[in-house]
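Appendix B: complex inputs.
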Amino acid sequence: MTRPRATALLCLLAAACATTSLPPVTSRNFALEDDEKRMWARAEEEQKKIEASGALYKDAELEGYLNSVARKLQPPEVFKAIRFRIQVAKSRQFNASAAPNGVIYVHSGLLAQMDNEAQLATLLGHEMTHATHRHAIRDFRDTMNKTAFLATVNVTLAGVPFVGGLASLAAAVGTTAAITGYSRDQEREADREGLRLMVQAGYNPAEAPKLFYVLQKELEEEKVKEPFFYSSHPRLQERIDTYEDLLKTEYAGRTKGVKNGELFLKKIHGIVLDNAWMELKAGRFVHAQRGAEKYLAIRSDDARGRYLLGEVFRQKGGDGDADRAKEQYRKAIFLDPSYPDPHKGIGLLHLKLGEKRLCRKPLESYLSLAPRASDRPYVEEYLRQCDQR
Amino acid sequence: MKAGKSVLWALLLWTTGCVTLPWVPAEALYTSQTKDYSVALPKGWMRWNLDEDDDLLVTRDGTSLQSILIVRVHVDDKLRHTKKKLAKGMMPQEAAEVILDNYGSDPNIFAFEVKENSPASISGLRGFRAVYTYKTKDGLKMKGVFYGSMRGDVLYGIRYAAPQRHYFDRDMKTFERVLASFKLAKAA
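Resulting structure:
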């Protein structure tokens, strides 16, 4: 080995000693380390951008509720170390993420799938554990150490054809994989600790794995195979196994506890409706229908939910869907005769079905209820078509 | 000797088309490779043929500052962000809904809002004009206008997009001239 190579190897090995063994924030004498402070500062910068992008719901009541559930899971001293803040991202993705500084984004797509507060507490307990157990900085250091190690190998083997290049490739992949999610051990730790937190707060542990069952069904329906790298839901079956094992062992026989289903659904009903609209726009008719039906289970007398379900059937356009759509539009009009959109929906259906005698009246009702409707020129054109026999 | 080999390789790649620059100066009158439309492109702008479908992107200062996109979407084509599909015989408003839902379902944009959706014509065909705004990941507010029309089983679309502040209005007249010059060839 030449002298410069030996020096480089020593430097790299020295750089590869950042510890990944850090105590949780609840430990005595907790203080942020320098690289961790930089990571928090970076996270705050990114959060400002996210705030400005319009990607988050601005609903003080909803946020207040979500944060009140978070406060049930951790004692006040933890909130002194990390100022947890739960926010809802406008995204139909089945996802949630925790920044090292305690900002947790729950995607509306995930929230809309939940049935009760116990399931929410499971998710929040899991995400909060990533922050309290300092997974981000541990993961970052682990990646840096591995990258440094692989760089060392690269220097050492650089003279050997092909092998040096292979090590570079592995280093790059390792870095990317770390960015896309936490390690298997960290996910397991977050699952275990999150479950402990929700049980300690009095929630029913039997609710904990239910979100994963929904996710599993989703992956099966969408025919998504879990890739080895880059999966946003890594090793799903392993995580279900972790929960089921814990329920059979540590929490065996504990089938009681708080669920708070009614309160939870009351708080998130707007998210359920919004998310069903997002699913409809994305052309995921089955998901949109489920969302609309879930919303109607919460608020059966809401014309907006009926109209949405009517739109799902109209746009899906399968056998018998036109009749189903008409039925929902009629129910919406019955519930709120001044709501313009179902009148238009029913008129459009008549026009599409060639029922021209029937299309004029509902389209006229639409325009009289919404005289400044942005699509007025279209509707006026439809009215002319209604008169063409 | 080594240098000579490199030059030979570079020449070979160039002549076989492996090394090409996608952006070329926009012609005054561009005819699509499939000869089904022609359009007058603005002087001093650059164009890029995006794929084998001959979709066309033109810009003067870079696509983040302004871009005009001309696309053809076949009813069998899968859209990128929605599973909805265009269909032969769709009414203009229905086609507009599919196109707007595709844009609105893009996970990389935020606060998507439709400002206007009204009937319009392109090259004499019934179609739609939709105006929308959205924000990028960095919070930059963008504005777009999309003209679309179905002919048979193909939607022809012309879209202009630019940052809402300053840039959108600045090049709108140029876009309107491009739109007015767009001519579909007679259907075979």
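Chain B touches chain A through 24 residues (CB under 8 Å).
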